[in-house]
């Protein structure tokens, strides 16, 4: 029996091979469709270049672009097409002699037959292992009817199958886009799409419409076109990933915070930090992150909202030298532009660092991450898969969410509290003529925790936690009422 691995022809796009569970079945005909500009030609070139690397012959039949344009496209990606055969199929001129004018045949009949014959001649001359036919819209226009078009595609399919060639047909969907003739004939069909959000760069995604006899990863998968080709980011499926790790409890940086959290946070769990702007969500997350690094682990922080240099400067104010940790290779900090990056690419970035040994991930914040999503529900689904993946790999995740408002009843732009294992709530409150900050743990799945509310400060000494505010009532509303007699013992002393 043949080795199953040798029966697959790589597409030349690693992420697409992953989606297709190995690549394209050899000796079969496949359809790649999408509107102009979605990257079909680039994928077709990568398919042939992958074959060249494997010692296979490739033929590119172009009817919609000239050979010069095709070589210019390859050069823009830094590729050379040496070793590949390019056949520029120029449509025959619609000029008939006197004998042909008396014929009952239309010019399209003659052109279609001649076009097919010239494709076969080029194939016989090259005898390639891989073929790209660009594009089917020309053949569809010459066929002029669905019946003749289907018969023509079947003719091409049977001809190529006898030669055991793997064929990728490109369709730009510029005419009769509702015609699914090739979908039923092809062994597999893939669709590329380009979306235009109200703001930011265009978004591209692909979907496998069918693949006979093969299990593939369904749904939409983000991809981008950059110098060097198409990069596909397969949709994350947490169930495909797993690993064994010790379910240990990670102590917190300070004894008071450790007591508040009932001994610390569990490895592989997720922690959500909620609070209005300015309450110190980022810096609080950094204290956990530094604690993980001091225990010998590596960490990664993805920042959406704040400029990297400003964050480094603020961290120095609480005694955390982030630049030194980055230089030592113990911390990775990436600034993410939500208007430029797709959710799939972001997930791929996180996976890359996790597979490189990162054991704690900070996402600051989900407000910025939400901007990359078409709708809130998509964010929840993305986060669910991402957090499940991190949990299975034993990676602790810290997420921050900025709530609308400063005091009183506040709303979160997205509710992911049910996804997190631990939820920390930060609040402003007024007492003794000053604006102060309070922290409480409102949820912790793995163990018991304090149900108290404590004042905290972030300063040069780091994260400073006060005593439980037992003599106040209404702290979470922002304007508490003093119900005890000793105010000074409840608040952190003012050292200014």
Automatic annotation (TrEMBL):
Keywords recorded for this protein, A-Z: Hydrolase, Kinase, Phosphoprotein, Repeat, Transferase
Keyword Nuclease: no
Domain of life from the UniProt record: Bacteria
InterPro entries per record: AAA+_ATPase (IPR003593), Circadian_clock_KaiC-rel (IPR051347), KaiC (IPR030665), KaiC-like_dom (IPR014774), KaiC_dom (IPR010624), P-loop_NTPase (IPR027417)
Top EC class of this enzyme: transferase
Domain KaiC: 7-246, 248-479
EC numbers for this chain: 2.7.11.1
Matching Pfam families: ATPase
GO function term, MF aspect, one: ATP binding
Protein name: non-specific serine/threonine protein kinase
Protein source organism: Frateuria terrea
